[in-house]
Amino acid sequence: MGGKWLWLTFSVVGTLVCAAIWCFYDKNPLLVIGIVLDLVSIVLAYAFGWHLLERFARKAADRYAESVLGSFLAGTEWEEG
Q1: Under 8 Å CB-to-CB from 7, ≥6 apart: which residues?
Q2: CA 13/CA 36 separation, integer angstroms
C-alpha cells in the first residue's frame, strides 16, 4: 500500500522526461511508446493503488481480526473448561 505513491511518482516523472526529450531533443518514435506506457502505468497505479489494493487490504484485515477474535474466544473457553 505504501508503494502506490512511489509507483505513481515514477510514472509521472517518466512521462515528463520522455515528453521533454521527444519535444526538445529527438523525435524518436520509441519515446512515444515510452510516453504511452508511462501513461498506462499512471492509470494502473491509480486503479490498483487507490481502489483495488484498499479493498484487498480491508478484506485481509477483516479476516485477520475475525481470526484473532476467534482464537481469543477459543482460548478463554479452554481455560474455563
Answers
A1: 41, 45, 49
A2: 13
